[in-house]
Write a structure and sequence with these properties.
4 strands; alpha+beta; Double Stranded RNA Binding Domain; globular; 108 residues; four-stranded antiparallel β-sheet; 46% helix
Length: 108
């Protein structure tokens, strides 16, 4: 899976990007990130056109590279053990901002 991850990150020009959990900081536990990300990404993908560029989806989880709004890449490696999200800077900023709004508006 590691080679696949590197391949997808390179294809999306995301090899130097930071992972979502690193950007959110230590106050976010993995369960919180999983929940908030799931809510936020569904809203963003409804708002912007998206197309899966590459993916492996199985019973245990998924690894996908998605082109969002014909300009931003989103890499997801999500299964029961792992929750990795990388994105083009502009898209990642939108994701982080929306997640932080959720934190302020809720009792996380």
């Amino acid at each position: 899976m590691n080679n696949l991850k590197l391949e997808y990150l390179a294809k999306g020009n995301l090899t130097n990007s930071l992972e979502l959990a690193d950007l959110l900081g230590k106050e976010w536990e993995e369960e919180m990130i999983r929940y908030a990300y799931d809510v936020v990404i569904k809203l963003l993908l409804e708002k912007y056109k998206s197309k899966i560029v590459d993916s492996i989806i199985g019973i245990e989880g998924k690894t996908t590279l998605t082109l969002v709004d014909n300009q931003y890449y989103l890499f997801e490696n999500i299964d029961i053990w792992t929750h990795e999200v990388y994105a083009t800077d502009e898209l990642m900023s939108l994701i982080v901002n929306e997640i932080n709004k959720m934190l302020k508006q809720s009792n996380f």
